[in-house]
Amino acid sequence: MADSRGIREAWQNIPSPGDVAVGLERFTGNRIERILAIVAAIGSAALGAQALLAAVTNISVVDAPRVAMMLLVFGPLLWMIVACISARAIRPACGSFAVAYVVALVLWPVIVDRTTREPASQPWIFFLVNIAVVAALLAFRPRLQLMWALGLPFVYGYVRLVEGGFSQEFWITTAFDVSFTLILGAVIVSLGWMFRQVAAGVDDARGKAVATYAAAAAASAAEEERVAMSALMHDSVLAALIAAERATSEREHDLAVVMAREALTRLANTEASIAQEGNDEPISRAQIVAELRRTLSEQGVDAVVEERGVAAELPGRVARAMVLAARQAIGNALDHAGGRGLHVIAESAADDRLTLTVVDAGPGFDPDAIGEDRLGIRASIVARMAAVAGTSDIRTDAGGTVVELGWEPA
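Structure for ATP-binding protein, as requested:
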């Protein structure tokens, strides 16, 4: 069976444009960035371990410059791996390694001993060329990413030729290394751009779909409310007016009054799930308080609902009207006072007289300045309470607003 709450509740659960912008705009993009970070961490750990092993096997205990070189490279690399795994400070960590690697590469000819290096033997720093490109991909803007991908291989090639004294043997092996790292770096950057563009397209399509659905739901909800209001006006309000106009006897007058009261209640309760008065089964004050607490919880407000006096029971239609009016008062306090100082007092007496008081510490408002088309107070509070022979008193000043709803048995 279809949900009787209909599309109105679905509409209330649709994110607003601001919520969509915050929560959904970068959903796929964030997932792609996380995947790139994890892949970068795995690749960096594998190649970093290979480079560390090669560096340790070719280092002397007393060779302080080489130890300093290793600390300069592997320290930021370790930070980068940890940051990518933990998803914290990824850009600073990757940026630090990308810059530190360039510095180490420039200092390499000064520190390394050229006489102990063979042309076919690659130095340990070679294994990290493309890791620096990956770091730039995660840390920098596209222009800098391209600079790292295209520039680092040539910087490495120049440093390698300096190390070999620009001999012919070094030219051959270096050309191969540079071409390999250049192609691989271009592929890495291209894949990163492609994945990010696809993710941006998916996020954009999702945002447009949500906005389109929100607009359609709003139009459907407005049409549903218009149809419900038209039926209500035709079936209840006009019938009550016709009965009142044709009434001639005392009994007919009484019946017209009852019809008018029911019509007013239905009109005031049009935003409820079922726009009708409902039965008059007694409802206790405890149930009313529980409903108000649930309302505050749904709004995410940590406000107190205070109970005073003895227990009481009210007719069902009266209890429903008071709860709906109190909900409207709570909503007004949240919208216009930010919920400052919000608390609710439910006070009842032994004769089943009940008073609900909604208090806030907002800036207050001028009741006379409220436009005629604003029905939050006139219809949802004043008219609703009048429809069940209740009272409503609204007091407001610069220190806050007090909405007092009262009902007592006739």
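Residues 157 and 174 are 6 Å apart (CA to CA).
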